[in-house]
Amino acid sequence: MKQFLFFVQKEFFHLWRDKRTVWILFGMPVTQILIFGFALTNEVKNARIVVLDNAQDGASRAIIHELSASRYFDILRNLRSPDELERTFQEGKIKMAVVLPAGLENTMLHERTATIQLIADATDPNVAQTLANYATAIIMDYQQRQLGEQTVPYTINTEMRMLYNPQLKESYNFVPGVMAMVLMLVCAMMTSISIVREKEMGTMEVILVSPIVPIRVVIAKMVPYFLLSALNIASILLLSVFVLDVPIRGTLLLLVAECLLFTITALALGLLISSVAESQQVAMLISLMGLFLPTIMLSGFMFPVENMPVPLQIISNLVPAKWFYYIVKNVMIKGLTLEYVWKETLVLVGMTTFFMTVSILKFKTRLE
Amino acid sequence: MRTLRILLEKEFRQIFRNPAILRLIFMMPTIQLLIMPLAADYEVKNVKLCVVDLDRSAYSQKLVNKITSTNYFRLVDYTHSYDEALKYVEKDEADLVLQIPASFEKQLVTEEKTTLFLAINAINGVKANLGGAYLRSIIVDFNREVRLDWIQLPRLNVQPKLEVAAINWFNPLMNYQVFMVPGILVILVTMVGGFLSALNIVKEKEVGTIEQINVTPIRKHQFILGKLIPFWVLGLIILSIGMVISWLAYGIVPLGSMLTIYLFAGVYLLVVLGMGLLISTFVQTQQQAMLLSFFFMMIFIMLGGLYTSIESMPDWARIFTWFNPVSYFIEVMRMVVLKGSTLFDIRYHLLIVFLMGIMLNGFAVYNYRKRS
After folding, report:
1. Are residues A281 and A183 both part of a single domain?
2. What is the structure's pLDDT at B156?
3. Inter-axis angle of helices A19-39 and A214-242, nearest 10
4. Based on the domain organization, do A287 and A303 belong to the same domain?
5. A-B contacts (CB, under 8 Å)
């Protein structure tokens, strides 16, 4: 035990003497959770559009006014001729063009059907679809008001209730995701170079000739980073609640325990990378480039997992962040208890055990 | 000139002598470009629906049939207890609960008015909104059919009518991969270039070989150029591999000219590499270099407009993106590849990125000290 404590102390000195690294490790998650918590949103608003008004009458002006009054659209300018359309799209400034047909008001009142064209830049299909929906709704609203309210028999009304997030705040979805992403990447990166650096520096030999067993070396390397991560978790949770306004509806104890568990999973994954990598550069490239995109794209907070092709859904099960995102979302925002997330917790425990075992087995007691 | 050539020879040798790194920087982008775009599908489909039918009448059956016959909804369960349905939402097995009241058919027919109740899991606000809107439009449709059953509408609709026709340009099939692939390629090129250059000088510091260079007559700018050019070439090679993959695997052929893409990529890589080199002149260890470049890279990428659109961000974040090289490259790639924009269309992007490159590299040369 005493031997182990000495080792932990050694690792602490390593970490603590590099003040710059400590500052970066502590400041990075905090800054990122703040920036992403505020800036990331899937909502579409302020989309720049152009209008081609071939009618120039009361109805067309009223519709343009309605569009520009909505927070979804910013009307960049009015085009004069359809030839300008393609150019304007290619300059990349606009997402949609609204083309109002000549004699709109007249057609609408006498011939009864007038068609308004929406041309969307569908390079981003999601935004194109959403904008078309918004614009259609605004135009239909305008028409409804023109007709005046009428009561129609046999009406089915719909009453909607938004569960868990009545104000539809985007941060409720993004904060758990960003937590998973930041903790995963920062923790894995921290330990991924710890073993391989000793190999590169030559200090590994000193450890290998000492009587300490591999398991203690490996665990001792985790301890200081684990404590640093615990501080990070505390600050991330405080920021989420008091600055980003995301509630903690479940028990705080369970949430913190799950965060700590996930931290250990990530640290263990880092150690595994460290024990197989041959140089610091390789270790860092694997832990960043290898983990960055999968963590963002397969954990489910950016793109829904159920939309992915089946092979990818299976692969996504290998991403620890996916399980953690699920747990945090359920405990923090839905306020569920361990009863609902024990399976996911068990998966994380299993992954951690696997990473630890492999990195201890891979830990060579001899130099090549 | 000769000094530079010899320096380049040294750098290239170092790169090629490390097959592990070389494998990594070619394999990782290739595999990720093949897999990741498949994950990116934001279309709202497979919304999991749980119906609580307290009526169990012909009309309620008809409504449920109508909803499930669309592609958007998947019926999870058909129960008669709201609490049971809520359990599904808690377990994430349902996104939407539609409750049909006990006297749905009776109210509709006799009182001519009835209310359905819809509960939505709103943690993901956008999905909730869209799913709810789809379901409502189906209900409105159903409502119209019911009316047609009961009342004879005048054959000629006397109301003035507006129609809206939506046309999708540049990506008529609304294929999400077409949108993601160029952006993901940008991220991969950025990561490879940025990380490798950030690690490079600092590794010489850590290993001690920088001392040897410091005592030679090599000038500062020659040294920086010697570090810059190899990674610049590597970056362009990775971009080329990526373009081939997006053609073979996704059938994406740039509408605009290749020359424009490569010209912009060449200038853009100067920015990424300059940033890496600047970081590596500041720090002492590879760990610090990696952490710092990761910090900036992650912010640049997440706010680069690949995942969430820049227009929707708050003002301060939008102003930040003016200084974000990644957002310029992602925008240019999408413009040239998908819309066929020309060099003239992207002239401001090019100019801004060029100025960034000059500044970062100039600063890196200035900040590199030959004295320790």
Report:
1. yes
2. 45
3. 40
4. yes
5. 342
